[in-house]
């Protein structure tokens, strides 16, 4: 149950620039934090075991070759494959602020994708089912149907208000794992390239 005394489940999703879901994981209790859900999903394990199978391309930046990555909010652990914004402790540099602005702009894609999904399938806001497994199947099916609609440029008049798009999580990942130095170096190199 969440803070509103409603049973809920978590949708962990990755999308592309056309609002199509490229990965979804559904079914973890809605009370789990983002980092915990991420660590329990296949995507996290794949990044550990065979990241090249997920992100086979690399890019050159500041004379270093880096693998591609997904972007996430601060609720996820930073790594070479998962870029997060700099934590705003009140002392961010101009470079870090610029990076965070661009990061947030790109991150809004997933927020808008989920908004489109909820708008297209408004029943997702309150699923009345007996078992969590049924909810998970229904949510995954809606994600697949959403992708089909997006592939066919079916942008029927969806009632989306920009105010409905939730901001990314602002709670920092309270991760007991050590800071990923390679992830920090990569994020710093990306930030430097923006200046």
TrEMBL record:
Its main location: nucleus. Keywords: Hydrolase, Metal-binding, Nuclease, Nucleus. Residues 3-147 form the DDE Tnp4 domain. It is found in: Nucleus. Transmembrane segments: none annotated. Pfam families: DDE_Tnp_4. InterPro entries: HARBI1-like, HARBI1_dom. It comes from the Eukaryota. GO terms for cellular component: nucleus. One of its GO terms (molecular function) is hydrolase activity. Its cofactor is a divalent metal cation. Belongs to the HARBI1 family. This is DDE Tnp4 domain-containing protein.
């Amino acid at each position: 149950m969440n803070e509103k005394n409603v049973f809920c489940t978590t949708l962990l999703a990755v999308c592309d620039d056309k609002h199509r879901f490229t990965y979804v994981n559904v079914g973890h209790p809605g009370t789990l934090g983002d980092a915990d859900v991420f660590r329990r999903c296949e995507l996290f394990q794949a990044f550990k075991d065979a990241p090249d199978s997920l992100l086979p391309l690399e890019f050159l930046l500041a004379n270093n070759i880096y693998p591609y990555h997904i972007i996430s909010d601060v609720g996820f652990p930073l790594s070479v494959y998962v870029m997060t914004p700099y934590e705003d402790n009140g002392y961010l540099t101009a470079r870090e602020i610029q990076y965070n602005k661009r990061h947030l702009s790109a991150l809004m894609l997933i927020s808008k994708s989920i908004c489109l999904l909820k708008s297209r399938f408004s029943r997702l806001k309150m699923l009345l089912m007996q078992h969590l497994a049924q909810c998970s199947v229904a949510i995954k099916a809606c994600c697949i149907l959403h992708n089909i609609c997006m592939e066919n440029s079916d942008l029927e008049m969806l009632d989306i208000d920009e105010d409905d798009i939730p901001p990314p999580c602002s709670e920092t990942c309270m991760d007991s794992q050590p800071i990923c130095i390679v992830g920090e170096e990569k994020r710093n190199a990306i930030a430097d390239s923006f200046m």
